[in-house]
């Protein structure tokens, strides 16, 4: 699937930057164009892979390149005001070569949280290609203001895109891990999962051809209908040093029985990875029952992939989700030393984390309002004399 990626804010820009690096390293040709937008000049300067001509600094007249300080209302206002500057970078994107737009942002800050829904609405108004979002939820330990930002941004973002894929930092941060180290690891996990998902079907001339092709239309149809999506991933290392299509024992003996045993093992590995991907740590933890649509992609060396295993995995997903729209296929990766299963669950609704986020945000909003009122009273008491005898200058 060929994407035009737009990273809004610090987290969004860093993730798009990693996607560009991943794309070059893997030769997957996913990122047809990449744009980073920010109100903080330093964040744009810290990127490594996005061309400087595609880094857009907005809000200079308002915040002088220093960011919006976690004020997502200001982030949204600036995005609206400077949309012409953003559009200038988007105009250089060869849209006729793009299957969809992907807007990526952290939902807890100010620029991305406020600006991502604004740019998504703008893109949907102008282009016919689907506009998807990838929103990153802050950890619950990051503070009330970030939770409030995330809850408000999530509510707005999901309405302005064709589908919102979500990654929850709370489910991925490790205890005792440094902030920077934690975010770097999280960004790697994001790119790994979505890289395989969007890379399926993008095979260059002379590359491996999938037995059961997953192309951009399969992804688009799975994401159709809107709502919220999550992605599961499971991986197993394999020995890919030998040649041929059978397993090691089959290659040594040439026996039909051993080859059948190896096929059975390959099938079992695939079905096991499908279960692990669906029931393990999802990008947004949720109950998979009631999922509206799903897509299974198996990636790895061709000799470790087979139609029977993928079909079994697809049927198991149908049973677990209750959905009749479960698609599946393989993504051959020449020279890979792993087999991986990626599952896209679209239209999920039983998500306790979102309800928890919203409740904490409501409490934070009430506390902020109470603190503001108390602050005004305290200031009034501090600056005015008891007998009101002093006269102000103005």
Summarize this entry quickly.
With 394 residues, the protein is an alpha/beta fold. 47% of the residues lie in helices and 18% in strands. The protein has helices spanning 9-26, 41-45, 60-63, 72-81, 83-90, 111-126, 144-160, 179-199, 216-223, 248-253, 256-279, 307-321, 352-383, and strands at 3-8, 31-38, 55-57, 100-106, 131-137, 163-168, 228-237, 293-300, 326-332, 338-346.
Number of domains: 2
Which value, in Å, is the CA radius of gyration?
24 Å
CATH class of the largest domain: Alpha Beta
Q: Tally the beta strands.
A: 10
Low-confidence stretches: 243-258
Q: How much helicity do the residues have?
A: 40-55%
CATH topology of the largest domain: Rossmann fold
